[in-house]
């Protein structure tokens, strides 16, 4: 067993179904810069993510900024 996790290939925004432009999800590597590391995700957007996808799929930049 290796304990180096790889990003899930979730490239779809769980809120709107659009492309989330998440670099790690697209490439399968965590060592890439992604817009989501510098953007502040609004609490309102986080609250709308389905529980089964929370922490597993990136939002898209548009949804991440909603309410913020
Ligand atoms: Zn979205």
Short account of what is shown:
This protein is mainly α.
Which helices and strands occur, and which strands form pairs?
Layout: H1 23-27, H2 43-48, H3 61-64
The structure holds zinc ion (ZN).
Structure description:
The mean pLDDT is 89. The chain has 68 residues and is mainly α. The chain is built from 3 helices and no strands. The termini are far apart. The protein has one domain (1-68). The radius of gyration is 12 Å and the shape is globular. Zinc ion is lined by residues 13, 15-16, 18, 59-60, 62-63.
What gross morphology would you assign?
Answer: globular
Q: Roughly how much helix do the residues carry, as a percent range? A: 10-25%
Major beta sheet summary: none
Bound molecules: zinc ion
Task: Kindly estimate the percentage of residues that lie in beta strands according to DSSP.
Answer: under 5%
Q: State Rg.
A: 12 Å
How many strands? 0
What is the number of independent domains? 1
Structural class: mainly alpha
Uncertain parts: none
Number of helices: 3
Helix and strand succession?
Answer: HHH
Overall mean pLDDT: 89
Q: Terminal Cα separation, in Å?
A: 41 Å
């Amino acid at each position: 067993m290796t304990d180096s996790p790889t990003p899930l290939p979730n490239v779809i925004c769980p809120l709107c179904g659009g492309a989330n432009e998440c670099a790690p999800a697209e490439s399968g590597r965590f060592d890439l810069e992604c817009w989501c590391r510098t953007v502040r995700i609004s609490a309102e957007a986080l609250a709308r993510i389905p529980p089964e996808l929370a922490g597993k799929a990136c939002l898209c930049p548009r949804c991440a900024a909603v309410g913020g």
